[in-house]
Amino acid sequence: DSGVTQTPKHLITATGQRVTLRCSPRSGDLSVYWYQQSLDQGLQFLIQYYNGEERAKGNILERFSAQQFPDLHSELNLSSLELGDSALYFCASSPPIGDTQYFGPGTRLTVL
Amino acid sequence: TQLLEQSPQFLSIQEGENLTVYCNSSSVFSSLQWYRQEPGEGPVLLVTVVTGGEVKKLKRLTFQFGDARKDSSLHITAAQPGDTGLYLCAGVPLPTGNQFYFGTGTSLTVIP
Q1: Which of A18, A58, B33, B34 is 20 to 30 A from B50, alpha carbon to alpha carbon?
Q2: How many interface pairs between A and B have CB atoms less than 8 angstroms apart?
Q3: What span, in angstroms and rounded, lies between the C-alpha atoms of B17 and A96?
Q4: A-chain residues within 8 Å CB-CB of B90?
Q5: What was the pLDDT predicted at B98?
Q6: How far apart, in whole angstroms, are the C-alpha atoms of residue A110 and residue A97?
Q7: Quick one: which of B2, B1, B21, B7 has its CA closest to B83?
Q8: Is cis: bond before A8, omega within 30 of 0?
Q9: Which residues pair with A111 in a beta bridge?
Q10: Is the Cβ–Cβ distance between A98 and A92 less than 8 Å?
Q11: Is A49 within 8 Å of chain B by CB?
């Protein structure tokens, strides 16, 4: 158990819908990262937050957005969902010093 | 083009054999991490290497960071079925040091 929690574990929805994925980092970690993993794309970095502020942005679509709240939990919002958005979405957190990331169990999103 | 290239991409070996997985880049990294991921689960951190030329051992796994901090290797001695999984290297390249990159991955299958 990494100490990072993600909810829900599974999510099934339809095209055009909007969903919110939630992540709680390990105690003491200030950074939260979001990743998308699909069979043909590998693990793709989406976005990073540090203590409530956006720090780095990767291959995140405009239909996707994220935020980190004062209690350091984070949410990833996915809108106007397409079939190709079906994937595993992982959240990771890291301590204030160092690059090491600790991953949550992931949310499996299926768009029908 | 991926910043971190891993080879081989797939590896299937018999129990008891030795193997080496490589992680290469043209960029310099402050540190590199190795993760193992099992299907449907999040990556789990195995080790972090920080110093050029550093060698770390974790039971039957030996990790090495290249002298120039551009590459790393993972050697497994006497592989066991429990070693089966996706092995990923990852790190933050210098000098920008903001975005975390994962390697292309090596899928290892150890046959009993």
Answers
A1: A58
A2: 56
A3: 40
A4: 101
A5: 65
A6: 35
A7: B21
A8: yes
A9: A13
A10: no
A11: no
Across all residues in chain B, what is the average pLDDT? 92
A43 touches chain B (CB under 8 A): yes
Q: What is the pLDDT of residues B62-102, one digit of tens each?
A: 999 999 999 999 999 999 999 999 999 998 888 766 677 89
Question: Cα–Cα distances in Å, from B18 out to A53, A95, B33?
Answer: 45, 34, 21
Tokens 């891993």 — which residue?
Answer: B6
How much of chain A, in percent, has pLDDT values that exceed 70?
A: 98
C-alpha to C-alpha distance for B101 and B103, rounded to whole angstroms? 7
pLDDT level of residue A91 (50, 70, 90 thresholds): very high
Tokens of B111: 């046959």
Nearest of A36, A1, A8, A44 to residue A23 by alpha carbon: A8
